[in-house]
Amino acid sequence: xxxxxxxxxxxxxxxxxxxxxxxxxxxxxxxxxxxxxxxxxxxxxxxxxxxxxxxxxxxxxxxxxxxxxxxxxxxxxxxxxxxxxxxxxxxxxxxxxxxxxxxxxxxxxxxxxxxxxxxxxxxxxxxxxxxxxxxxxxxxxxxxxxxxxxxxxxxxxxxxxxxxxxxxxxxxxxxxxxxxxxxxxxxxxxxxxxxxxxxxxxxxxxxxxxxxxxxxxxxxxxxxxxxxxxxxxxxxxxxxxxxxxxxxxxxxxxxxxxxxxxxxxxxxxxxxxxxxxxxxxxxxxxxxxxxxxxxxxxxxxxxxxxxxxxxxxxxxxxxxxxxxxxxxxxxxxx
Length: 334
Fold this sequence. Notes:
Layout: H1 3-22, E1 29-40, H2 47-50, E2 51-65, E3 68-75, H3 77-84, H4 93-96, E4 97-105, H5 106-109, E5 116-122, H6 142-145, E6 150-157, E7 167-174, E8 186-195, E9 200-210, E10 216-227, E11 233-243, E12 253-263, E13 266-275, E14 279-290, E15 294-305, E16 310-323
Antiparallel strand pairs: 1-2, 1-16, 2-3, 3-4, 4-5, 5-6, 6-7, 7-8, 8-9, 9-10, 10-11, 11-12, 12-13, 13-14, 14-15, 15-16
């Protein structure tokens, strides 16, 4: 793929986004997406090196029939980053498809009890997914709490055992993320969710994962999210235990705690996290909406490594949202 072709693809994407936002889509089709551009203080003297695209995605949701939908989400950040830095733009299609799955709601297609079955490339049922911070993929715990781009099967059952559990979700998957090839290594997760009140939600999850060795990685997660009655603020916390992690071999636990609150026209976000024998991090950001499609978010991160070294990164993100879901955000993110 050469630069001219990529330019045409990006232009077509923006035209499509504008069309999706301005016109009424048919009931069976939903198109949405977002593009984020970051500049951090890693190399402010070289703005071309500091500028990057992150979480650039285009999502198509097609309702095949009542209770059956097809979802395809393309991840465009690899192509955009190569375009920005004027690098070789060759890209594999399979690595650009972040999600491609079929989701079935059993009670809508048959007389079976309700269950939601998801098959294909998607995020597995593990831990809490919190993205209040603008550059959330830079967060210390992101890799530990997100099993994404995996080929597998997830079954979510809205059960209620003596009013203890609201939903149980199981995932079986192969652990070769980022492509459509089936690897020999397998993973399994389970997540239990309970909405204690209208404001408080709890989750417990566990994971068993193979990495091609005799040792199997184990992870467990417990967390909560509390949102105020008026939606102006929320707090959250998550704790993890792990064993035989190939990336954090000397770590047994990790955790994060954070809060977000509407302040002025936007929302301020604060989060602190730690990984045992690895690093500690504090991040502060402000999400400021500019119109219906654009959010500007300055962010500061302080990271202290176990060896005593530290670093402070200052950055700003511009987030452009489009489609039927553009401008519709919940809670303190603004």
